[in-house]
Amino acid sequence: MGRRALIIDDDEAMCAWLAADLRARGVEATTQTSPAEALALLEEDERFDVLLTDLNMRGMDGIAVCRRAAEIRPDLPVVVITAFGSIETAVQAIRAGAYDYVTKPVDIEALALALERAIAHHALKAEVRRLRRAVAGPGAFPDLIGRSAAMRAVQDLIERIADAEATVLITGESGTGKEVVARALHERSRRKGGPFVAINCAAVPESLIESELFGHARGAFTDARAARSGLFVEANGGTLLLDEIGELPLAVQPKLLRALQERRVRPVGGNAEVPFDARIVAATNRDLDEAVEERRFREDLYYRINVLHVELPPVRARGSDVLLLAQRFLEDFAARSGKEVVGLSPPAAERLLAYSWPGNVREIQNCIERAVALTRYQEITVDDLPAKVREHRPSHVLVAGDDPSELVPLEEVERRYILRVLEAAGGNKTLAARILGLDRKTLHRKLERWEPAAGAAKGG
Fold it and tell me: Mind listing the GO biological process terms from this record (predicted)?
């Protein structure tokens, strides 16, 4: 555990025995036989991570110690030692602020486990407080929330390429915040005074997408009662985001390629080309390498939009950013609803960290909005979280057991592991190949050999 514990017991022999065992387990233990002196030490030294106290002591009992410790260090977990069968006394200690209790005769393994849980609880509370301060404080990227190494790399890349005029391709799973990155690029560029225009290529019918992008002349089609300039021209002086570009119809792709190359567009039904001055940012959650191989996306267009590449990590790769995002959404939804919800309880934070968030940032936002609406307290509790978050248990791939009859050939171990990585990568073969240290062609050959199992892992 590698943390500091303060032990209070008026039995010197008990103190010595507990301290010796805990030190052997990596806990720096300080002992005191006087509760009053121990509490004075607690006021002077803020480095203790857990307090362990007996209940029945001369001068001051453990209940009083719990109450006083809660006043001195409200964040410090207290574990009490009580006589066997004294459940009523243990309940009193919990009500007085104790985190947990163990009974005599002391089972040292049970005590060590209780202390480990208490120390982890203390660390998590400290992390929650730190994240509250981080959300409240000024940041270089107020909307692109994250302090993990993966997100710092993204933020650093945005700073470096913000003023470049080259086309940017933003990739990442659905819900990771690709439009937020596009807006961050715009706000840090020389074009920030111009418009930010976005279009979801998957949401516009194929018959209208060309008109939306390039505009149309009056009378170009039945409902074209007036000429329209199109989004490329509307974004003049600013940034145009082509979201979900992987869904762009093949028939429109050569026209987009020409527009990007010539910096001019021809409206539908028009005779003259119109110049535009906008920075183009494209985004997709699709594997465009695979789309190019399958001839669903033009290779020349792919290279034209992929001059600068920003790859957004999924939430499951961002560590405690989950709590930072949750705290930001919590404050936003609490303000909108007028509820005095200030943070997450440590058990709720623990559940958020354990969950894999397949829906990424969007799923966290939905989860916290629900929790703020349901909670009756100032902190979100485990009961306020969706059932799938509360009950989630990390899954592991079982490749062998202790029974020799359960052992499998090495090729089967490889198959299970590769399919598990592909599943974790959301079916993205390029990302899976990078994780596995394979090239895409090698991975593709292996998956073809294992069909239809690989098809099931990809979702068909």
Answer: phosphorelay signal transduction system; regulation of DNA-templated transcription
